[in-house]
TrEMBL record:
Native organism: Massilia oculi
Protein name: Acetylglucosaminylphosphatidylinositol deacetylase
SUPFAM superfamilies in the cross-refs: LmbE-like (SSF102588)
Single GO MF descriptor: hydrolase activity, acting on carbon-nitrogen (but not peptide) bonds, in linear amides
InterPro entries cross-referenced by the UniProt entry: GlcNAc_PI_deacetylase-related, LmbE-like_dom_sf
Length: 257
């Protein structure tokens, strides 16, 4: 593991949400509106490495699109079956089924009626190995002019980073626009460290109801927000982690690297 990869290691409690709220980088990042970020008539394709990443990255945006009458495409790269290793409460087959249900419940909470969900079935934890295949499958789903939203290519989780690279390849080939959102980047990065590409950032300002719906949608992922009694493991998404993505805005990077 090189020094750059070590700097993105996800461990401990990470940077608290309170520190990000005071970050000058966030205060000066330009704000945008739904119509500027997603012009009317644009199809949005949200590509989630794991079930819940579509909500963590852009749950409020999905709610705002649904309220506007748009019908986004949600691409589930994996089914998240490896989040509880060694668990007797959550063996992989049961966990896969549960996480699929959680996504459907969360999208309903956001008002996304009859969502189009494409499940690619790539093994959880195996996206890097499947990256060329993922890029090809995404290219087959995309159309010119689409707006693709996924996790940040330096997010710190291998599946998130491989998904972002595959999305970039597919979007470039299909003349689609790509936005990337930090999920675990809020954890390992910190204000002032220069790790996030602030020069490519914009903030989608959220009305209070959109933020409330995002919070409610995250609560639908009970397998992730509750601890595992069979192993004693803490929640995958503890409250302090969710607070880092519950700002009064959603942050997107218009990256070109």
């Amino acid at each position: 593991m090189d020094a750059v990869a070590r700097s993105r290691h996800i461990a401990g409690a990470g940077t608290p949400a309170a520190a990000w709220r005071l970050a000058p980088e966030l205060a000066t990042a330009p704000s945008t509106t739904l119509d500027r970020l997603v012009p009317r008539g644009t199809r949005v394709a949200v590509v989630a490495p794991h079930p819940d990443d579509e909500i963590l990255a852009c749950g409020a945006l999905l709610y705002m699109l649904a309220r506007r009458g748009d019908a986004p495409l949600v691409v589930a790269v994996t089914d998240g079956e490896a989040s509880h290793p060694g668990s007797t409460d959550w063996p992989p087959a049961r966990l896969r089924a549960q996480r699929i249900r959680e996504t459907e419940t969360a999208l309903a909470c956001l008002g996304v009626a009859r969502p189009r969900i494409e499940r690619l079935g790539i093994p959880d934890g195996g996206v890097t190995a499947a990256e060329p295949m993922l890029a090809a499958r995404l290219a087959a789903l995309l159309r010119p002019g689409d707006l693709v939203i996924t996790t940040w290519r330096h997010d710190g989780h291998p599946d998130h980073e491989a998904t972002a690279r595959a999305c970039a390849t597919a979007a470039n080939g299909r003349q689609a626009r790509l936005l990337q959102a930090p999920v675990w980047g809020w954890h390992w990065s910190a204000p002032g460290d220069g790790a996030m590409p602030w020069g490519q950032a914009s903030k989608l300002t959220l009305p209070p109801d959109a933020l409330a719906r995002k919070r409610a949608a995250l609560a639908c992922f009970t397998s992730q927000v509750e601890g595992d009694a069979s192993t004693g493991a803490a929640p995958i998404l503890p409250a302090f982690a969710m607070e880092r993505v519950l700002h009064p805005f959603e942050l997107f990077f218009d990256c070109h690297d």
